[in-house]
Amino acid sequence: MIDFHLDVRSGVSPYQQLVQQVQRALRLGLLSVGDQLPTVKEVVAKLAINPNTVLKAYRELEHLGLVTPRPGLGTFVTHSLADDSLAAHEPLRRELLGWLDKAQRAGLDADSIEALFLTTFRKATEVTP
Amino acid sequence: MIWLTWRQFRGQAVVALVALGALAIFLVILGLQLRNVYDANVGCAGCSVESGAQLLKDKYFSVLLLTGFLIILIPAVIGAFWGAPLVARELEAGTHRLVWNQSITRTRWLAVKLSFVTLAALAFTGALSLLFTWAASPYDRALNDRFDPLFFPTRNLAPLGYAVFAVVAGITIGLLTKRTVIAMAVTLAAFTAMQILMPTVIRPHLQGPITENVQFTAVAAHGIWTNPAGQVSVEGYDVPGAWMLTNEAKLVDSTGAQPSKAVTEVCFTGDFAKDKACLEALNLHSVLTYQPADRYWTFQWLEFGIYLLLALLLAGYAFWRIPRGLS
Amino acid sequence: MKPVLRTQGLSKSYGSRPALIDVTLTVPAGRVVGLVGPNGAGKSTLLNLAAGMIAPTAGTIEVLGSRPAADAAQLARIGFVAQDTPVYAGLTVGDHLRMGRRLNPRWDDALAEGRVAQVGLDPAQKAGRLSGGQRAQLALTIAAAKRPELLIFDEPVASLDPLARRAFLQSLMEFVAELEVGVILSSHLLSDLERVCDHMIVLTGSRVQLTGDVEDLLATHYRLVAARGGLDALPPGVEVIHAEHTDRQSTLLVHDTVGAVPGLAADTEHLNLEDMILAYLTRAALGAVGARAPQTLEAQR
């Protein structure tokens, strides 16, 4: 079972953080099909967050087709992200390295690169709230 | 709610029971002693009732007076230590905000607390009053003094009225002051004020007193004295068992005026018997006002009723106030 | 479902001093409501009105559709824990549970006993000797075991250390998950509440500054950064909460009720909850200074 954590100051809404943590665990193979997610009460008791936040995150994961709630039993993983995405990691990383190299050659220092990346990243991810 | 009231009250109840036990032992011993002395000096065959009564008075007046004070003091103490903190301590500690948010209305909360402690006060004071009335009854029978303001409030029903009043006044004052110590002080002050007002201002007028003209006779007068203006007062004009409202029986003539010095001066020679005869010849009388002995129980009930009514008014105010929020 | 709290023109004065002025708001059911504002803003007054501890000077208040503290049944529906979590110092933890059992018809004994055991309270311990955190847990247990439909807490964590604070909020959220109970809790610190609340009421100077579901609030508040003068004409429905200007640039915090903001400025981003509430508090503080405040802002240009 995975353990959630929360960074209130991160700027990412709490429910998204939970969704992302499940997705990351699925990608890294920490969670696989058939595994159970912690119950709402367990998450709430650990993180001291609103149960609605957890419910919303689980609904989102369900909507993404990653988990299925079984009434009376809990929420279970029905789809894994590990195989396909793990394979995609390496080429993507190489592309990113190439891009970084390009940015450095264009004269951007580390801070500028980070700022550019983050603003672009945020804008791109904000499209789907 | 009764459980909670009892749980909060039980410490005080234990103290009260210990005090009641000690007082009861004292009163029983006092009552038995009085009975022995009564039987030996008043109730015996061939005894002089008058001298026996005088002996009882000499021996027991002080102790009965002081015990009587204690009997009045007890409702005051109950009002200050049971009544005043009952609500005030909750308001002071903020615990009313806990208990008022259980599934019980404030009215019911107050009703249970008030009834519980009032009944406890009634039981406690009632037991003491009963014991004291029993203990003092030989004395009262011999001296017929129980209507006297010093003794009237200490026996029979009157202490019960004081107890109810003191508790309810304590509770209501506590509700208003919200401070335990202040509520205790104000309760004691209110109780004392009532104890002074009642016999001086209110009780004498509960029923129209009887006024009687008594002819001065040498036989009836126990003592006579005069002031520098020559006005004469006389001692010994008591109505048995009555509450005398006339402190000093002044001698007046047929017009109702006090005779002048010129008239009375001649009668004061220093020979008591001769002086009395001389005064008798002047055809003087005195005007006595009093509440007769047969009104004793009427006055006991009235005293009890007035205090009960005051308690009801105060309780009514508290019950009107409490659901309305306190600030 | 009926709203948990509905007020209309609600005002409360203590003598001539107003504590709450003309509060009109509706809090929908099923929320964890945060009531935020500086000390003395009127938070306690509002919560005490909701619990029926005090009566309003003007206006109306309805909690779960009824007048607060109207009768025993209404009292049973609300669990109110007053500021500083009062308990009977001379009574034990066990006595408090017994009191709860005797005074509440819907009392859940299993919940109460289990909770006390779980947080490690000794039933024989006198409540007066509990720590602040333990006292808060006891008060929470009594309020929750009553099985109310709404829990109201007045500054429950203000006097607690960070550990007890977290423990209290964890317990509270467990109850919310388990009992499906609505919650209103107040704090003068947003950080106490932002993890747990999905509805906010911001109160300053006896008036409501902002109220709404957190999600809606986050979705409708933006920070716009543009060249100086580029934002002078805003479309209707876009309200400026806070504005700062330098020689070159204007930064506006706006509330967009009509969806007109996206695309308005080159640099548009959503606000986080803290910045948003701070903007409202700043605006209220400036407003309180009086009519001179806008001129001061003007002079900074």
Automatic annotation (TrEMBL), chain A:
What are this entry's molecular-function GO terms? DNA binding; DNA-binding transcription factor activity
Among the Pfam families in the record, one is GntR
Q: Where does the HTH gntR-type domain start and stop, copy by copy?
A: 12-80
Query: For this UniProt entry, which segments traverse the membrane?
Result: none
Q: Does Transcription appear among the keywords?
A: yes
Q: Which UniProt keywords are present, listed alphabetically?
A: DNA-binding, Transcription, Transcription regulation
Establish whether keyword Electron transport is in the entry. no
Protein name per UniProt: GntR family transcriptional regulator
Q: What gene, per UniProt, encodes this protein?
A: ytrA_1
TrEMBL record, chain B:
Q: Name the keywords, alphabetized.
A: Membrane, Transmembrane, Transmembrane helix
Can you tell me where the transmembrane regions are? 12-32, 60-88, 109-137, 157-176, 181-202, 299-320
The name this protein carries in UniProt is Transporter
Q: Which organism is it from?
A: Actinoplanes auranticolor
Automatic annotation (TrEMBL), chain C:
Entry's Gene Ontology molecular function annotations:
ATP binding; ATP hydrolysis activity
- For whether the record's keyword set contains ATP-binding, the answer is yes
Classify the source by domain of life: Bacteria
Annotated ranges, domain ABC transporter: 5-230
Which PROSITE patterns does the UniProt entry name for this protein? ABC_TRANSPORTER_2
Database matches in InterPro entries = AAA+_ATPase, ABC_transporter-like_ATP-bd, ABC_Transporter_VariousFunc, P-loop_NTPase
The record, for Pfam families, names: ABC_tran (PF00005)
| Alphabetized UniProt keyword annotations | ATP-binding, Nucleotide-binding, Transport
Question: Do the record's keywords include Transcription?
Answer: no
State the PANTHER family in the record. Answer: ABC TRANSPORTER ATP-BINDING PROTEIN ALBC-RELATED (PTHR42939:SF1)
Name of the protein described by the UniProt record: ABC transporter ATP-binding protein
Q: Which organism is it from?
A: Actinoplanes auranticolor
